[in-house]
Design goal:
346 residues; alpha/beta; Rossmann fold; two-stranded parallel sheet; binds nicotinamide-adenine-dinucleotide
Length: 346
């Protein structure tokens, strides 16, 4: 069904320069690999992390360490670009974004300079990775939440720090189209998960954290798990492959120019349900301890996919159990590799 939607391979020649920022991270690393596997010969992947800390290094790609909060660096990053995918941001799961709001807000520098640099470079299309955290938090006070439609971002009462940065950066993208006719595209991601993402260290999100905790419990023989909040908070989770397909189709859909759109699963589960899924994969049952003081975010959040289904006749569909199984086994390998003293990606 989604075949009628245009993708990069349909509209670009293989020597067009694709710039991907945040490429040392989870989603942009996977996106870089995705384009490379489709035969694009000129991909410029950029991240501020040293190259040996990137989650994925893709061969045949120009991989550069650059800090994109600087204007001049963004100018260099976008030189000659046909398309720019800006996914760089200082971010993490709830534990990070509730604690480091200033760092999150500072990511505004990245998009501010990147969108201007892309414009100056004459890039044909510009993609910005926004977030469900832009939505009005007062609409997310109940675990049995009504799924969020694109219009629910206004009147604005975004997540402090991270959400406001995303909302303001969206506005930049919208105005670059309105005033300067640069084609910008804005996807509001709802929790993305999968292999090659952060699974440890404080920036990890719930799916990876739950996998790691279950693996730790199994390994140590301490069959307990600590869950942040009461475990009844609800979310939807999108597998990375769906996210990549969505980015590609959104970026090449002219109906979506400068129009924020949800990119997320609409399969709502509680954090308790998520733990049960991971327990089933691991084949164990754990005693659940709840930490009411830990960061837990809004009570409930889901993606209303009416708009994306209407425009693209598509929505993310990888079953949660299937995606979590792949994620679990990847994290388990990282865990055992690290224990054996081998280098891992998180
Ligand atoms: P990630 O942390 O794995 O990747 C982001 C990358 O950006 C990191 O590697 C980081 O080093 C890099 N970066 C930060 N500041 C930079 C700078 N000044 N210059 C260059 N690079 C810089 O995160 P991710 O999960 O891959 O997220 C990618 C994008 O998607 C982000 O914009 C994020 O806000 C957005 N998003 C992600 C999710 C999710 O569930 N993962 C949900 C909503 C939105």
């Amino acid at each position: 069904m989604a075949d009628k939607n245009k993708r990069a391979v349909d509209v670009l020649d293989k020597d067009s320069l694709i710039v991907v920022s945040g490429a040392g991270g989870f989603i942009a690393g996977a996106l870089t690999k995705y384009f490379r596997e489709q035969g694009f010969n000129r991909i410029r992947a950029i991240d501020k992390k040293p190259l040996d800390q990137w989650y994925q290094r893709v061969s045949g790609v120009e991989s550069l360490q650059m800090d994109l909060s600087e204007k001049d660096t963004c100018t260099k990053a976008c030189e000659g670009a046909t398309e720019v995918y800006n996914l760089a941001a200082d971010m993490g799961g709830m534990g990070f974004i509730e604690r480091f709001r200033i760092e999150c807000l500072r990511s505004i520098l990245i998009n501010t300079h990147m969108v201007e640099a892309a414009y100056q470079a004459g890039a044909g299309r510009y993609f910005f990775s926004s977030s469900a955290c832009v939505y009005n938090t007062t609409l997310q006070a109940d675990p049995n939440v009504r799924a969020l439609k694109e219009l629910d971002a206004y009147p604005a009462m975004a997540e402090r720090g991270y959400g406001w940065e995303k909302l303001m950066s969206e506005m930049f993208c919208r105005e670059y189209w309105a005033e300067r006719e640069m084609k910008t595209f804005i996807a509001r991601f709802h929790n993305v998960y999968g292999p090659y993402g952060t699974w440890d260290g404080g920036r990890e999100k719930a799916p990876a954290a739950m996998c790691r905790k279950v693996i730790e419990a199994e390994d140590t023989g301490n069959y307990e798990i600590t869950i942040w909040g009461d475990g009844r908070q609800t979310r939807s989770f999108m597998y990375i492959d769906d996210c990549l397909d969505g980015i590609d189709m959104i970026m090449h859909c002219d109906k979506l120019i400068a129009t924020p759109i949800n990119l997320g699963s609409n399969y709502l589960v509680s954090i308790n349900d998520l733990v049960s899924i991971v327990e089933k994969i691991a084949g164990i049952k754990l005693k659940r301890n709840y930490d009411p003081d830990a960061p837990k975010g809004v009570a409930g959040r889901n993606s209303d996919n009416t708009f994306i289904k209407q425009v693209l006749d598509w929505q993310p569909a990888t079953p949660l159990e299937e995606g979590m199984e792949k994620t679990y086994y990847w994290i388990q390998k990282q865990y055992t590799d690290r224990k054996a003293g081998k280098r891992t990606v998180s």
